[in-house]
Design a protein that fits this description.
Layout (H helix, E strand, L loop, with lengths): L1 H8 L1 H11 L13 H23 L4 H20 L5 E5 L5 E5 L5 H8 L1 H6 E6 L2 E3 L9 E7 L3 H23 L6 E7 L4 E6 L10 H12 L5 E7 H7 L4 H9 L4 E7 L2 E4 L13 E12 L2 E11 L2 H10 L4
Parallel strand pairs: 1-5
Antiparallel strand pairs: 1-2, 3-4, 3-5, 6-7, 7-12, 8-9, 9-10, 11-12
Helix pairs in contact: 7-8
Length: 322
């Protein structure tokens, strides 16, 4: 009993005995927090980090250009919605007449009524003698022709859509500094190109792998094509960062400009595009060259694109490019 009293009367001895008899329990910090909440917080951190990484790699003008586009697209959609709709008659190649309403009926809807399989094959339409986007509303009585890839006009739309993807890849790779801008895009008889002006870099064949990789990432998004019409004044605000575009705008005679967006790239284009870049399954960069634009040296990147990998392989073999 005296031994017990001695232990109880001395706190240092009591603590030592208790420490030997009772094994300490170390509770992990996660026991004090909800595991589920912790997972949510980690997801938020990763999501924020991803956004910051994407923002850091975006061209300096992306945010302002995207904001202006959103404003113009909303205004244009409201303008189209306010148009007075009238009954129109659309004549097909076989003489059949389709009835609908102006500023509502589209070539896509006509193709869907004929055959759902046809929708997959048709890229653009020809309204009377004018090439027309597949989802652009018709405005009056007309004759319509639905164009597939075997048409040269459809190929031009296909290659121009591919040029948008190439241009976006070039912007993401080379326009994050203060000087780089894509000057223009276009199609040729057998492919397409994008012109870029850089202040401190020359693109060469060693860069093809990086460009191809960026293009593959963009094509995975299956970006939808959007179209607006706007004034030269609004276009100047949209392309305020790009002196090459401002010169093009100043030289246009008509004050009404057709402007397209596919993915993140935006351009003034008179040629219709595909509904999505999803149909552009394969893009191959072929070569680079130096050209002059407004007296300034720029770099032109050439490419080809096809609906299938087999067609690309056959093209490369036929032209001895493999």
């Amino acid at each position: 009993m005296g031994f017990v009293k001695a232990i109880l009367s001395n706190p240092h001895i009591l603590f030592g005995v208790a420490n030997r008899l009772v094994k300490p329990v170390r509770l992990p910090i996660s026991r004090f927090y909800s595991t589920q909440q912790d997972d949510i917080d980690q997801k938020k951190v990763r999501k924020l980090a991803k956004k910051l990484a994407v923002a850091a790699s975006e061209p300096r003008f992306y945010q302002a250009r995207s904001s202006k586009w959103t404003e113009l697209k909303k205004r244009y959609d409201q303008e189209v919605a306010s148009k007075e709709q009238e009954v129109i008659h659309v004549t097909l190649l076989d003489g059949k007449v389709v009835e609908g309403f102006s500023w509502d009926l589209t070539p896509l809807q006509i193709a869907q009524d004929i055959s759902h399989a046809l929708v997959q094959d048709v890229y653009i339409a020809k309204i009377n003698d004018q090439l027309w986007d597949f989802e652009r509303p018709l405005e009056a009585d007309c004759k319509i022709q639905l164009l597939k890839y075997d048409s040269q006009d459809a190929k031009t739309a296909f290659w121009t859509t591919a040029a948008f993807t190439l241009a976006e890849a070039l912007e993401r790779l080379y326009c994050t500094d203060d000087g780089g801008v894509v000057c223009s895009i276009g199609s040729t008889q057998s492919g397409f190109y994008a012109d870029i002006h850089l202040t401190a870099k020359t693109i060469n064949r060693k860069d093809i792998g990086a460009i191809d990789e960026q293009i593959a990432k963009i094509l995975q998004n299956h970006s939808k094509v959007e179209r607006i019409e706007t004034t030269k004044s609004d276009a100047n605000e949209l392309f305020a960062y790009n002196p090459f575009k401002l010169k093009v705008i100043s030289e246009r005679v008509c004050d009404r400009l057709p402007i397209y967006r596919c993915g993140c790239f935006i351009e003034i284009v008179d040629t219709p595009l595909l509904r999505k870049n999803k149909n552009v399954n394969t893009i191959k960069i072929l070569k680079m060259e130096s050209v002059l634009c407004n007296g300034q040296p720029i770099q032109r990147v050439h490419g080809v694109a096809f609906p299938s990998h087999k067609e690309l392989k056959d093209y490369l073999k036929q032209n001895k490019l493999t």
